[in-house]
Write a structure and sequence with these properties.
Helix 1 crosses helix 7 and helix 2 crosses helix 3. 33% of the residues lie in helices and 14% in strands. Helix 1 links the parallel strand 1 and strand 2. The protein has seven helices and six strands; from the N terminus they run βαβαβαβααββαα. The chain has 199 residues and is an alpha/beta fold. The protein has one domain: Alpha/Beta hydrolase fold, catalytic domain (Rossmann fold), CATH 3.40.50. The chain starts with 5 loop residues before the first strand and ends with a helix.
Length: 199
């Protein structure tokens, strides 16, 4: 199978090293898979998600050009950055599969107290934020993509945990207890590997 490259987008307080375990699992199961894990510094949530999405778009174009077909994975805040790329930077036209994990696609109560003036990136994740309303208004752009959402019911970062789902595609709770375990627990890694490598 001529598998598209997989772009993995990290979240708040993370770096591409977040994906070490998942990447190792993917490479064991599918030697030769092409992974791209861009580093998107966010200054502890001060950088607006639209700015980070612009940086993601520039990095993808530099690495893969403007037309190459891709798969996309976003963890936590990275799922919103990835969705911005899909809906506002033409990514939906070239994305085959979009998997988001623990991503506050419907906002999180944790972000509610954060002032936009100082913490723009975190404020973008408030329930009912202007950015989330804009993304939902353009959700039809996801119709041609295989979208999957995974969440942790007891998540303390995306609160309540069930808000970590896209408006399209299957939704599944992973058998873990915390936000971090979504990317570290062996059962989560095994399930995500299966989904990401599906035909």
């Amino acid at each position: 199978m001529n598998r598209p490259p997989l772009v993995l987008v990290h979240g708040l307080w993370d770096t591409p090293r977040l994906f070490d375990r998942l990447g190792a699992s993917l490479r064991r199961a599918c030697p030769g898979i092409e992974l791209h894990c861009p580093h998107l510094p966010h200054r502890c949530g001060q950088v607006a998600l639209t700015v980070l999405a612009e940086r993601l778009a520039s990095g993808i174009e530099a690495r893969f050009g403007r037309d190459r077909r891709l798969d996309l994975f976003g963890f936590s805040m990275g799922g919103l950055i990835a969705r911005l790329w899909l809906e506002e930077h033409g990514g939906a036209d070239r994305c085959r599969r979009f998997v988001c994990v623990g991503s506050p696609q419907r906002g999180t109560l944790v972000a509610q107290p954060m002032p936009r003036r100082f913490m723009a990136g975190i404020a973008d994740m408030k329930i009912g934020s202007a950015l989330l309303r804009r993304l939902d208004a353009d959700a039809e752009l996801l119709a041609s993509i295989d979208c999957r959402s995974f969440y942790c019911p007891t998540d303390l970062m995306v609160v309540p945990g069930w808000r970590a789902v896209l408006p399209r595609g299957p939704r599944e709770a992973l058998p873990v207890l915390t936000h971090r375990q979504l990317m570290h627990h062996p059962r989560a890694i095994a399930r995500l590997t299966d989904v990401l490598l599906a035909p």
